[in-house]
Amino acid sequence: DAKTTQPPSMDCAEGRAANLPCNHSTISGNEYVYWYRQIHSQGPQYIIHGLKNNETNEMASLIITEDRKSSTLILPHATLRDTAVYYCIVRVAGGVFGNEKLTFGTGTRLTIIP
Amino acid sequence: EAGVAQSPRYKIIEKRQSVAFWCNPISGHATLYWYQQILGQGPKLLIQFQNNGVVDDSQLPKDRFSAERLKGVDSTLKIQPAKLEDSAVYLCASSAVGETQYFGPGTRLLVL
Asked: Between chains, do B42 and A105 touch, taking CB under 8 Å as contact?
């Protein structure tokens, strides 16, 4: 069972920042927060992950609350190509052999409006 | 760097027929995963390999599904015989041990 809760859908205007929330109130100390997205008819695409510090890469920023019970994925300047289903997943830290599987929920369907 | 390759991209079969999917992971990735994604749902893990050994196949319907990774590189997932409820996208992913998983484009299966 997925250990995260996400809104089923969101809209965002093109060029604006898209902020996607995720609740993971039962997260353990050794679990990372991962974000993937899935554009229609494609496989899931890795976006970013973090443990407790905020993270940023060329695609997005990840903000994790201090108590680690929730996080927000930020796409700073959304484009039409960012329309996709976004999955927030908690997963044990790497190297724990046999526990690396990703348990997907139903995600948030983000629609970028022109 | 080449990504995860899968073939075929699409397959249509009739129920009770057999079908096989192929996956070539990213070079050097020891861990390989097969996921099933039913329409409207997130992917669900079917089986995980570490090199050529099975790590987790608890969600694999073993009466009809089988998978192998004989030389620790490519993998094949087979369904025999197929049922209507097997219609789904079958996704292959790979990773270095314990690291981020990268997915292929998937094989879309329709069972009639």
From this structure: yes
Beta bridge partners of A70: A23
Q: Do A94 and B41 touch (CB under 8 A)?
A: no
pLDDT tens, A30-65? 889 999 999 998 999 999 999 998 999 999 999 999
**Burial label, B92 (beta-carbon count in 10 A; 0-12, 13-18, 19+):** buried
Q: Is the dihedral of CA A72, A73, A77, A80 positive or negative?
A: negative
In sign, the C-alpha dihedral spanning B35, B36, B39, B42 is negative
> Using omega within 30 degrees of 0 as the cis cutoff, is the peptide bond preceding B8 cis?
yes
Q: Which residue of B has its CA nearest to A101?
A: B45
* Contact (CB, 8 A) for B91 and B43: yes
What is the token pair recorded at A72? 């927000």
Q: How many CB pairs under 8 A join A and B?
A: 61
pLDDT value at position A95? 55
One-letter amino acid at B106 equals G
One-letter amino acid of A12: C
Judging by DSSP bridges, how do beta strands B10-13 and B107-111 pair with one another?
A: parallel
